[in-house]
Amino acid sequence: GDSVTQMEGPVTLSEEAFLTINCTYTATGYPSLFWYVQYPGEGLQLLLKATKADDKGSNKGFEATYRKETTSFHLEKGSVQVSDSAVYFCAPVGSGGSNYKLTFGKGTLLTVNP
Amino acid sequence: DAGVIQSPRHEVTEMGQEVTLRCKPISGHNSLFWYRQTMMRGLELLIYFNNNVPIDDSGMPEDRFSAKMPNASFSTLKIQPSEPRDSAVYFCASSLRENTEAFFGQGTRLTVV
Q1: Do B42 and A49 touch (CB under 8 A)?
Q2: Is the preceding peptide bond at A40 cis, omega within 30 degrees of 0?
């Protein structure tokens, strides 16, 4: 089945620092790829997505590019803010058949200090 | 749309009691998921419904757990009897169809004492 390996946290940065959270996946076919964010006390929210190779998903200054050759979908942001402090989850979802479900990584806790 | 609605937001119960968690998916979505989140195990998929039919319940931990979806707008997750190790945050999520992004509810924080 599908699986995902996500950079272990916690990650602590100062405001305006550059962020990278690595994510690699294994999946059959051509999965769609998602990054979700979970703020304290809340459910998961979709941050960005990419549905085919070389697509770049972007939202709120975050970006991730679907790299099929390296099976990766690393999350980046050029200048983080305190309000970006949250847990980030990478998730592939399969392209059909029984690969219907989101497979979540363990999550990466990001703390941004002023 | 109001999004996925879960109730209650918090539940504290005594060991051995029955607990029922409720979920209203987004209207028009035909896929529904129940997840459990703990510090130790992260996010675990418990059960998946498609068009109100349970497709995969392999993540349901044991017979004490059961889930139903009597119609397209309502699902329940029941634990009977509850145990302290069931303490977790339970999330319901729905998606428009298979293989698309899921929208999560705010979760139910369950504490079994």
Answers
A1: no
A2: no
